[in-house]
Recover the amino acids of this structure.
């Protein structure tokens, strides 16, 4: 990622423009301007429109955040007609023409969520209040996503969630101004179950280790629900403290519990550590009840899986997207990302890129950036060509429904990126659920006036 | 009591009020004049002032003050959920709950001093954080954080997911969607929220000034100076320490309450030890034991967290756009270590430099500057400067 | 600060007949040993009202231990210390001070960060307001009466010019004066002085003797632990000699001067 | 029964790591009187010595393999380690496999250097400053160190596998005649032995050498030792170096158990302080004792049987024990009065 890369520099300069202009504008003037067009919050005044990219730049998910930021910059480039256009060329909607959105150049500001709700909200508020951002996107954990989504609802801007896997984001805590492209634990459960059945049969005893917070519980619940439907028995579900580091004291009881499957409802560093250590304890090579012992990691992240190294081999899990997919959209995205940065994009990068494109497309189709109009353009939107096959943005809960990938740690990887192989693409209709299932209420749109 | 303020105290108070109230204008050139950051300046200023009452005056280093901040936030949120969206009950409840919590923790922790005290407070705060994140989720809503919700339809909905707000319902205050915290109808977001926080900051500063100038404050300073001597002077230091601990806990509770008032969500990470560390850093950065220092330190750290972290390479390039290309690249390359994602590095370096060269924090830096400017004139003025140091500190 | 951690032992306050009414301090059969070593054994001592009582003895005689037992820092293994009808044994230092016992330390202990005036105000207020008073709004700056008195006491010890200086800027001798002022403002019934001239130059020592003599004229009861015989014989009305934790002699200065036992105990010590 | 035996093993293993970090921390505190908040960062730096060695061994040149394609469909550019080129795959494979144990050599050297540089350049100026200043400056240093590491190695954990031969689990039950159901990872057993060795070594060093005697005397009464005309300053530097080396090798050896990332130092910092304080500031035996005690208690508190009685106990056990110990024994298990109380 060299600073000499000319195209990147150009984007950066445009990206910075918004920040600097607002920096120099006394707030009374900008408030005055705002007052003149009391249309909606942060209605763009000049010839550019500012988006806010709120990603973790410090803390455990900093690498994931950095990858998200790369994807955002790429998306902005493509929207402004630079680079090779990426998935704009394969996107089923042809509203965008590569000359910005609604005739305005796309600029952006960035912020650091630190993977903390408080910091993320503060950062988003800065982008809304100070930098005039009219859409916030990003994030690498569900707590943060829900917190920022709530904020955007109050402030009256659109929130396009980044990597957030908890059901609550578009369930209990859904908001009219918030949209999610990423999948959730419910879909993971539905997608994994048939694969697990094929691989391990219906007579299995599962032992859960679950990160002791909302996402972990939600994941554990979904897997239990679907695996028990298969006929699996849940031997025990043990909660582990977030950031436990050493999981040995939770792993040793597994050995003598009579279980023959270990399900690690962990993400990030917890997943890396618990998986590495589980393999060290010989769980992957054991025989129990006359069967090979199996480990399952419901939510995989390739970036994080790199940290577990060899330990991921043969371990099943689910993922939103993977760079090895061979559809046109994925290929176009991998190509333009890979040529710019020298390595393939992660699923976090993919979902963030898609969200930016989807937002821009909706605004273009709506002909305005007004949140309620953009939202309506997204609601019930059917599209294709963004790497996941045909997708629906469901109106009832602002959740995308698409095929879910079931992946497995690759036995003989070709390169450091080649860690996972797609074993099954669970079709969309198998992972769909009624919107009432997860509760919550969207409420009305808020345009911020 | 007010009669006991010296002229310089009055000047200090007036200057403080003027500076705080004009922040929306004076902060413009550095891009910090927007409501959220201004609110944070005021809120963390209150937190740091309160922390300084314990640490700056008595010298007891608590590593667990974030626990009171967190408890205050949760208390305010529950007041919103159960009673009313009016902020006054929330404020009162937060301060009271934080005070009680601080009393319990202080009563136990203050049996020890020095590092042992620091670790005890750290242990209590970490226990609060760990429990709030996991098993206490019914009260705290764990990772997601406690939020204000619409009035619930039936008693079957849990209180986390649906509110009751008995006072508002009784008064028949209408609600559309999720309501906003308010002070008798004035909403507490944006600039009105800032001025509300600013008013409380000024009040908090005034109280701290009173305490600092009072006999009570003098005894606290004597504890820091020589606790053993104080015991032989007939003073029972333990209740003084507990009182200081509770007062500073209540300040933290107030700050936590304001966090919830300006932004109605409360998360457990507010209680983490790093959050406790942050207020220590603010206080030391500005100057422990001084009145203005902690507020200044809070401002600097919040500014770094919000603004320095947002300066990406693009903004850097614009900042040095007038320079020739290679030089630009070099400068941008160099500074990109310290801004954007590198802002933690800046913070770390800043602390090292301050602690190594300016043990009295930024306030000592200002004093030295002042002395350097006045020192040239006469030996007398140098002496006044030293005595005014005492004045300032006392 | 370690005081609070020391087990306080028997704290029940027994009724003690104060015996002779002019006895201010009565040390009754005090024993104290550290790890089997007898620091004090069988110590009986009476201090009369208004007298200056010196306790002398060679190094390790148990002088400091005795003082520490008196101020509540060390609990005795046996026996009791009765002051003015109160049993001091088991009381905390601040309680003992509130009863009217003030103490000057071996190395001057003052509040280094506070000004001279504040250093004196702290004991003045603790005398007036008791061991704890929570009123964050009351400031002595507004209370002329008590402040005037403090300023007078400071002037009386010769620190009038340093009223607003921080204590840390004072010389060692001045710190000692300040510490004395801190005790005097409380008008204690009993003043305990632990080697008040230790480490001082002759000039400062003489100045301190003068100061203490002036206090003596005020009729305050004092117990001095001292090494320097010059000081002892300048000030003391009565002297108790400790050696090996026991009292070996007691009496007026001239009696002590000629006591063979005392000479024996001090054999080899240059000062006698 | 097996379960309890395994939890004891877990506790010993965890305790070994805690004790190693706490040992250096309390050594620095006891001799130099400095509260070193950068000690976690030293642990992290040690771990990154292992990563660095691995990277060095993997230093490679590009070779285009026309037969394969990369993710963009271009000919695959393979990275060929120079080692492989020079010594053949067998030697390089062996070196890479054993890189973690080999990295101990690097860690000893690098950490001694870092330790001495840190003491000479920064710490010695803080001997007479208040503990709060020491905490802050070393905390600042810790942030700086970890940000530098992040700059070069990123934020994600980096796997460092143990040598193949000890990568799996040992049939401990079989070895001890407890039946065939008790397996424990070889590397963790090695780590426990390793920590016992290092602890023993440090104790022997302090107990049986003249240097150690002076240091112990210095821990007891610094002024007197200084008065004896012994150059205690130079010894302090060496002690700090020693503490850094202990933390460093502890970190390097821990990498197969916990893939290192830039933040791991902070994660261990609070914990190691709790261990030191529970043991008693400045007490070496206390630190070791407390390390193992907390490790074992943590393991037991995590058992489902215990958690069902006291929900969430495993989240707070460490802190709870710290509070209880400090309230019953004011200066920790083995602390001396007057130390670190102001």
């Amino acid at each position: 990622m060299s600073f000499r890369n000319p195209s990147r520099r150009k984007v950066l300069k445009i990206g910075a423009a918004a920040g600097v202009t607002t920096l120099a504008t006394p707030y009374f003037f900008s408030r005055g301007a705002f007052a003149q067009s009391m249309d909606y919050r942060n209605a763009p005044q000049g010839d550019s429109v500012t988006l806010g990219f709120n990603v973790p730049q410090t803390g455990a998910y900093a690498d994931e955040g950095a990858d998200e930021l790369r994807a955002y910059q790429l998306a902005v480039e493509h929207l402004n007609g630079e680079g090779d256009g990426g998935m704009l060329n394969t996107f089923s909607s042809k509203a965008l023409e590569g000359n910005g959105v609604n005739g305005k150049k796309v600029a952006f500001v960035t912020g650091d969520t630190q993977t903390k709700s408080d910091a993320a909200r503060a950062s988003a508020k800065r982008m809304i209040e100070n930098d005039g951002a009219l859409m916030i996107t990003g994030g690498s954990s569900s707590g943060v996503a829900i917190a920022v989504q709530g904020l955007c609802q109050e402030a009256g801007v659109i929130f396009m969630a980044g990597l957030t896997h908890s059901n609550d984001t578009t369930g209990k805590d859904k908001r009219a101004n918030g949209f999610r492209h990423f999948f959730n634990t419910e879909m993971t459960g539905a997608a994994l179950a048939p694969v697990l059945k094929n691989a391990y049969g219906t007579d299995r005893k599962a032992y859960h280790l679950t990160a002791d917070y909302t996402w972990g519980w939600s994941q554990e619940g979904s897997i239990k629900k679907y695996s028990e439907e298969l006929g699996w028995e849940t031997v025990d579900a043990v909660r582990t403290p977030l950031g436990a580091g050493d999981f040995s004291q939770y792993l040793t009881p597994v050995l003598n519990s009579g279980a023959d499957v270990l399900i690690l409802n962990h993400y990030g560093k917890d997943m890396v550590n618990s998986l590495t250590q589980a393999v060290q304890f010989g769980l992957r090579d054991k025989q129990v009840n006359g069967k090979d012992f199996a480990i399952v990691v419901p939510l995989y992240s390739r970036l994080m899986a790199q940290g577990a190294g060899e330990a991921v081999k043969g371990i099943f899990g689910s993922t939103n997207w993977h760079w090895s997919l061979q559809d046109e959209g994925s290929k176009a995205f991998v190509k333009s990302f890979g040529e710019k940065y020298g390595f393939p994009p992660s699923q976090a990068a993919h979902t963030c890129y898609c969200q930016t494109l989807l937002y821009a497309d909706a605004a273009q189709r709506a002909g305005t950036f007004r949140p309620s109009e953009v939202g309506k353009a997204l609601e019930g939107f059917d599209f294709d060509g963004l790497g996941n096959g045909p997708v629906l943005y469901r109106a009832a809960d602002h959740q995308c429904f698409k095929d879910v990938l079931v992946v497995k740690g690759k036995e003989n990887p070709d390169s450091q990126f080649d860690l996972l192989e797609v074993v099954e693409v669970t079709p969309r209709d198998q992972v769909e659920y009624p919107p009432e299932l997860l509760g919550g209420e969207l409420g009305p749109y808020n345009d911020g006036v | 009591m007010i009669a006991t303020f010296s002229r310089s105290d009055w000047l200090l108070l007036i200057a403080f009020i003027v500076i705080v109230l004009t922040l929306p204008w004076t902060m413009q050139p550095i891009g910090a004049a927007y409501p959220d950051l201004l609110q944070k300046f005021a809120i963390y200023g209150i937190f740091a002032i309160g922390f300084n009452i314990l640490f700056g005056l008595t010298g007891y280093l608590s590593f667990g003050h974030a626990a009171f901040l967190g408890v205050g936030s949760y208390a305010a949120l529950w007041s919103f959920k159960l009673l009313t969206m009016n902020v006054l009950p929330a404020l009162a409840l937060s301060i009271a709950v934080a005070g009680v919590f601080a009393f319990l923790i202080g009563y136990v922790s203050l049996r020890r001093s020095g590092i042992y005290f620091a670790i005890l407070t750290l242990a209590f705060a970490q226990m609060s954080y760990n429990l709030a994140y996991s098993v206490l989720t019914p009260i705290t809503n764990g990772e997601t954080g406690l939020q204000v919700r619409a009035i619930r339809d039936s008693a079957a909905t849990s209180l986390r997911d649906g509110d009751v707000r008995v006072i508002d319902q009784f008064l028949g205050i209408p609600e559309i969607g999720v309501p906003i915290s308010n002070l008798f109808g004035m909403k507490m977001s944006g600039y009105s929220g800032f001025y509300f926080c600013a008013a409380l900051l000024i009040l908090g500063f005034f109280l701290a000034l009173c305490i600092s100038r009072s006999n009570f404050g003098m005894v606290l300073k004597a504890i820091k100076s020589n606790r053993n001597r104080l015991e032989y002077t007939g003073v029972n230091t333990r209740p003084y320490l507990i009182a200081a601990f509770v007062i500073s806990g209540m300040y933290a509770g107030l700050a936590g309450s304001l966090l919830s008032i300006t932004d109605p969500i409360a998360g457990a990470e507010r209680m983490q030890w790093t959050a406790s560390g942050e207020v220590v850093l603010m206080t030391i950065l500005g100057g422990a034991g001084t009145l203005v220092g902690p507020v200044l330190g809070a401002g600097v750290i919040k500014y770094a967290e919000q603004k320095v972290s947002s300066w990406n390479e693009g903004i850097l390039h614009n900042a040095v756009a007038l320079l020739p290309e290679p030089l630009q690249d070099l400068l941008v390359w160099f500074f990109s270590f310290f801004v954007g994602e590198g802002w933690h590095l800046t913070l770390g370096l800043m602390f090292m430099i301050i602690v190594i060269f300016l043990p009295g924090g930024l306030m000592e830096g200002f004093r030295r500057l002042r002395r350097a400017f006045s020192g040239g004139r006469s030996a007398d003025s140098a002496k006044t400067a030293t005595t005014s140091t005492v004045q300032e500190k006392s | 600060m370690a005081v609070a951690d020391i087990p306080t032992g028997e704290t029940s306050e027994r009724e003690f007949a104060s015996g002779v009414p002019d006895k201010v301090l009565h040390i009754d059969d005090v024993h104290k040993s550290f790890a089997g070593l007898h620091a004090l054994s069988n110590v009986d001592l009476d201090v009369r009202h208004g007298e200056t009582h010196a306790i002398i003895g060679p190094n390790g005689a148990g002088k400091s231990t005795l003082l520490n037992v008196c101020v509540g820092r060390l609990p005795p293994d046996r026996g009791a210390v009765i002051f003015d009808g109160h049993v001091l044994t088991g009381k905390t230092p601040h309680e003992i001070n509130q009863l009217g016992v003030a103490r000057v330390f071996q190395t001057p202990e003052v509040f280094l960060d506070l000004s001279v005036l504040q250093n004196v105000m702290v004991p003045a207020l603790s005398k007036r307001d008791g061991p704890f008073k929570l009123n964050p709004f009351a400031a002595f700056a507004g209370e002329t009466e008590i402040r005037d008195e403090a300023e007078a006491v400071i002037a009386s010890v010769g620190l009038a010019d340093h009223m607003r200086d921080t204590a840390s800027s004072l010389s060692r001798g001045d710190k000692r004066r300040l510490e004395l002022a801190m005790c005097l403002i409380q008008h204690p019934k009993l003043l305990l002085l632990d080697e008040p001239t230790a480490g001082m130059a002759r000039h400062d020592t003489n100045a301190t003797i003068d100061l203490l003599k002036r206090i003596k004229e005020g009729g305050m009861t004092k117990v001095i632990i001292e090494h320097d015989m010059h000081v002892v014989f300048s000030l003391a009305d009565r002297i108790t000699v400790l050696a090996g934790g026991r009292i070996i002699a007691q009496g007026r200065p001239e009696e002590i001067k000629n006591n063979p036992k005392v000479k024996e105990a001090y054999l080899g010590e240059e000062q006698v | 029964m097996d379960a309890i035996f395994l939890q004891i093993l877990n506790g010993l293993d965890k305790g070994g790591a805690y004790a190693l970090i706490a040992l250096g921390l309390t050594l620095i505190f006891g001799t130099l009187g400095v509260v070193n908040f950068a000690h976690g960062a030293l642990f992290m730096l040690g771990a990154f010595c292992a990563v660095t060695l691995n990277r060095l061994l993997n230093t490679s040149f590009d070779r285009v393999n026309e037969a394969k394609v990369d993710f963009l469909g271009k000919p695959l550019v393979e990275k060929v380690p120079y080692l492989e080129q020079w010594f053949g795959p067998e030697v390089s494979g062996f070196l890479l496999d054993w890189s973690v144990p080999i990295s101990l050599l690097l860690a000893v050297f690098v950490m001694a250097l870092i330790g001495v540089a840190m003491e000479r350049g920064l710490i010695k100026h803080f001997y007479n400053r208040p503990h709060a200043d020491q905490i802050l400056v070393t905390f600042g240093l810790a942030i700086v160190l970890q940000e530098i590491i992040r700059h070069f190695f990123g934020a994600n954990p980096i796997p460092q596998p143990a040598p193949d031969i000890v990568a799996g689990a040992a049939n401990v039950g079989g070895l001890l005649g407890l039946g065939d159901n008790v397996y424990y990872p070889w590397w963790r057993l090695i780590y426990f032995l390793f920590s016992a060795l290092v602890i023993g070594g440090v104790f022997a060093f302090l107990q049986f050498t003249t240097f150690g005697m002076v240091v112990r005397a210095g821990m007891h009464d610094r002024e007197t030792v200084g008065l004896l005309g012994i150059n205690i300053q130079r010894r302090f530097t060496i002690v700090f170096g020693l503490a850094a080396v202990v933390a460093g090798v502890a970190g390097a050896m821990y990498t197969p158990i916990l893939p290192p990332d830039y933040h791991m130092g902070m994660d261990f910092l609070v914990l190691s302080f709790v261990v030191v304080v529970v043991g008693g500031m400045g007490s070496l035996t206390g630190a070791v004792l407390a390390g193992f005690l907390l490790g074992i208690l943590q393991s037991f508190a995590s058992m489902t049987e215990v958690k069902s009685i006291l929900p969430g106990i495993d989240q707070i056990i460490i802190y709870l024990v710290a509070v209880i110990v400090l309230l019953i024994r004011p200066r920790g298990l083995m602390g001396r009065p007057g130390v670190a109380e102001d």
Remarks:
- Residues 237-262 of chain B form the longest helix (26 residues).
- The CA atoms of residues 179 and 290 of chain B lie 40 Å apart.
- Strands of chain B lie at 146-147, 182-183, 186-187, 265-266.
